[in-house]
Design goal:
The protein has helices at 62-89, 95-107, 132-139, 152-159, 184-192, 202-218, 223-233, 249-257, 262-273, 289-300, 354-363, 370-376, and strands at residues 6-10, 23-29, 34-39, 112-118, 163-168, 173-179, 279-285. With 381 residues, it is α+β, with helices and mostly antiparallel strands. The protein has a 7-stranded mixed β-sheet, with helices on one face. A hairpin with a 4-residue loop joins strand 5 and strand 6. Helix 4 (152-159) runs antiparallel to helix 5 (184-192) and helix 5 (184-192) runs parallel beside helix 10. The chain is globular, with a radius of gyration of 26 Å. 26% of the residues are buried.
Length: 381
């Protein structure tokens, strides 16, 4: 039973293409979390959706099922050989092509999926623990109060043909997964706990600091990542862009060396920013919109309410001092010229797509274009 309720619901928010067979519903929970529910008729369940709502039980019988499957595989080997032989005999009947088409259709099965975006990213990193938002993203995978096993979420998804990932940007962090259609409820149950009661255990933190450090070391030889960090380093002090977004062992350990508790700083970042009003959720499955809505209400109503409207963080200071030229020695044999300039925030005017017009003018390659001019002089390829 849902703990909270639905503050707003509409089936008319999404403007659909005439060929779009999916149906949509936008809801806002009383805790401020907004969710877009998508019913895709091509993602259908073999069983009625009600039979799969409580799919924790399938793990209990999984070992028995695997043993039965092994026995069935052995018993069916001879049958498969006979079928292969009979297929060769029927090559001229035109049936083999139909069989291949049917097999292809059966093997391609659309999966259910979900993604949740939190309106906080690396701009929120405290100076004493840079890379903290990225580190927090890692820690939410390390178990929750209801599912304390660190591998529970990933294990559940891998057992049921799914996968997951996450990424941290400057102003948002996104978590997403996909799974076989009939296990969507179980995956959502585990996923929701990321945003309700993560454990953030000390021993897991030590391992994930090394994981973050490993990711940093993997991109040390990437020219694009080196260039990005140069842009951050040369930005104006006091601007949120003036951060080390990746984070590594040193940047996170420095906080502890200064007498701070990394766990306390991490939890403060989580509690200050991970609340319903800063979250957007999308769920797509084969169940009806009513079923998907009941699941979201049941599982995500426990998310902390917090602020319903995220405060705007306007900045008057420029990112860089104008007229600066920096040279960066490349790792690979490349020659790159990158020009950067700042634009006013386009968040409220995104429908006007001003940046797309600029990109089209700069990227156009026809006669009379900037690209045509530079290429004629051997300055561009």
């Amino acid at each position: 039973m849902a703990v909270g309720g639905c503050a707003f619901s509409s089936d008319d928010v999404v403007v659909k293409s005439p060929t779009d067979r999916r149906s949509y519903r936008f809801i806002q929970l009383t805790n401020g979390l907004c969710a877009l529910l998508v019913h895709d008729p091509e993602i259908y369940s073999d069983e009625p959706s009600g039979n799969r709502e409580h799919d924790n039980t399938e793990d209990k019988d999984e070992d028995e099922d695997e043993e039965e499957e092994e026995g069935e595989e052995e018993d069916s080997e001879e049958e498969e050989e006979e079928e292969e032989g009979s297929g060769e005999e029927e090559e001229g009947d035109g049936e083999e092509e139909n069989e291949d088409v049917n097999e292809l259709k059966g093997s391609v099965q659309k999966k259910a999926a979900a993604a949740l975006c939190v309106g906080m990213g690396s701009f929120a990193d405290p100076y004493e623990a840079q890379g903290l938002a990225h580190f927090l993203e890692h820690m939410l995978f390390m178990g929750s109060t209801d599912f304390p096993d660190e591998n529970e979420y990933d294990s559940f998804l891998s057992k049921h043909g799914g996968s997951s990932n996450a990424y941290t940007e400057t102003e948002h962090t996104c978590y997403h997964f996909e799974v076989k259609r009939e296990f969507l409820k179980g995956a959502l149950t585990r996923f929701a706990q990321f945003f309700i009661s993560p454990l953030v255990k000390a021993d897991a933190m030590e391992r994930e600091v090394l994981a973050v450090d490993s990711e940093f070391n993997q991109v040390l030889q990437s020219d694009s990542c080196r260039l990005q960090q140069l842009q951050c380093y040369t930005s104006a002090p006091g601007h949120p862009f003036n951060r080390f977004f990746w984070g590594n062992k040193k940047s996170l350990a420095d906080a502890m060396e200064k007498g701070n508790s990394l766990r306390d700083i991490l939890l403060n970042l989580y509690h200050d920013n991970y609340y319903g009003g800063s979250m957007k959720l999308v769920v797509i499955g084969g169940e009806t919109l009513d079923v998907l809505e009941s699941w979201v209400l049941e599982l995500f109503s426990k998310v902390k309410k917090g602020l319903l409207v995220k405060p705007e963080r306007g900045l008057d200071i420029p990112i860089w001092k104008p007229g600066k030229l920096y040279w960066l020695e490349a790792v690979k044999d490349v020659h790159i010229l990158e020009l950067s300039w700042t634009l006013p925030s386009l968040q409220k005017d995104y429908l006007k797509k001003a940046e797309d017009y600029l990109a089209h003018l700069l990227g156009h390659e026809g006669r009379g274009s900037l690209h045509f001019f530079l290429k004629a002089r051997g300055w561009a390829t």
